[in-house]
TrEMBL record:
Residues 62-83 have a biased composition (Basic and acidic residues). GO terms for cellular component: Scc2-Scc4 cohesin loading complex. Coiled coil: none annotated. Residues 62-86 are annotated as: Disordered. This is NIPBL protein. GO terms for biological process: brain development; chromatin looping; digestive tract development; embryonic viscerocranium morphogenesis; establishment of mitotic sister chromatid cohesion; establishment of protein localization to chromatin; heart morphogenesis; regulation of gene expression. The lineage of its organism: Eukaryota, Metazoa, Chordata, Craniata, Vertebrata. It comes from the Eukaryota. InterPro entries: Scc2/Nipped-B (IPR033031).
Length: 148
């Protein structure tokens, strides 16, 4: 991954969100901006929103499950794990809130909400997609699958 380009995109896309949310917004801006030239980008935009919402929901469910598992086996790390679970839940809720706001916004309104529409070009969009895909669980465990 080209971390320099990712850092450049993050600097250009201003916002108080976390890094993943900023990249998601930049990619959605790019897709929304180019829907006139390629109709399939409308589907891609909806697919990404749905997939990110699903990923966030799965992350929340895993955090709740791990908290329940920790409750059954009381240990010295319990307080630390609960704090981590709380942070995961808070981050997941903020991401869900962001995605809901994107869903509720009509495409014509979304165009007017864009901060920097010229921030992301095709190459940057491809880089963002690769970077976000590398954060998914399957991509992170791909080396394990290959070695087995």
């Amino acid at each position: 991954m080209d971390q320099g380009s990712i850092a450049r995109i993050l600097k250009q896309v201003s916002g108080g969100e976390d890094e993943i949310q900023q990249l998601q917004k930049a990619l959605l801006d790019y897709l929304d901006e180019n829907t006139e030239t390629d109709a399939s980008l409308v589907f891609s935009r909806k697919f990404y929103i749905a997939q990110w919402f699903r990923d966030t929901t799965m992350e929340t469910e895993k955090a709740i499950k791990s908290q329940k598992d920790e409750d059954s086996s009381e240990g010295t790390h319990h307080a630390k794990d609960v704090e981590t679970t709380g942070q995961i839940m808070h981050r997941a809720e903020s991401r869900k809130k962001f995605l809901r706001s994107i869903i509720k916004t009509a495409p014509s309104q979304f165009s007017t909400l864009k901060m920097n529409s010229d921030t992301v070009d095709y190459e940057d969009a491809c880089l963002i997609v690769r970077y976000l895909a590398s954060m998914r669980p399957f991509a992170q465990s791909f080396d394990i699958y290959l070695t087995q």
